[in-house]
Amino acid sequence: MKVFIADNSDLLRRRLVNLFSEFPGVDIVGEARDAREALRAIRATKPDVITLDIEMHGGSGIEVLQEVKREAPAPVVLMLTNQVLPPYRKRCAAAGADFFLDKAIELERLRDIFQTLISRFNSAAT
Q1: Which DSSP letter does residue 34 get?
Q2: Nearest to residue 101, comparing CAs of 111, 73, 126?
Q3: What is the number of other CB atoms lying within 10 angstroms of the CB of residue 16?
Q4: pLDDT in the model for residue 126
């Protein structure tokens, strides 16, 4: 399962790389802190799963979400953000986000989500 991490926080990106590296079969194919850089790299690496922040340098993660969900096949996108007000949640859902997590209190859910995704991708590969 190829994973791309897009977040404006260097610390959080390192934390996510460490977390996801614990899972067998997960390959971190790239990272970005800038929205334009993220979109370019996502198109080049074609990840299965993307973690995406709403607030990014050079643009919005919601714009990146809208663009990557137009790709075929569309990747699974997990929005990880501090912008958790209902309007943000609604915009992300409308743009096709598969998950929406509050960075401050829901990061522990990533382990369970990734276990489920790994099982899903392993089943699809066989």
Answers
A1: B
A2: 111
A3: 21
A4: 65
- Residue 100 CB: number of other CB atoms within 10 A? 20
Q: Could you please report the per-residue DSSP string of 56-120?
A: EBTEEHHHHHHHHTTSSSPPEEEEEES--SHHHHHHHHHHT-SEEEETTT-TTHHHHHHHHHHHH
The percentage of the chain sitting over the pLDDT mark of 70, rounded to a whole number, equals 99
Mean pLDDT of all residues belonging to the chain:
94
Burial of residue 3 (number of CB atoms within 10 Å: 0-12, 13-18, 19+):
buried
* Coil/strand/helix, residue 52: strand
Instruction: Tell me the three state secondary structure of residue 36.
Output: helix
Asked if 53 and 31 touch (Cβ cutoff 8 Å), the reply is no
The model's confidence at residue 121, banded by pLDDT at 50, 70 and 90, is: confident
Start-to-end CA span in the chain (Å)? 13
Pick from 49, 56, 63, 50: which is nearest to 95 by CA?
Answer: 63
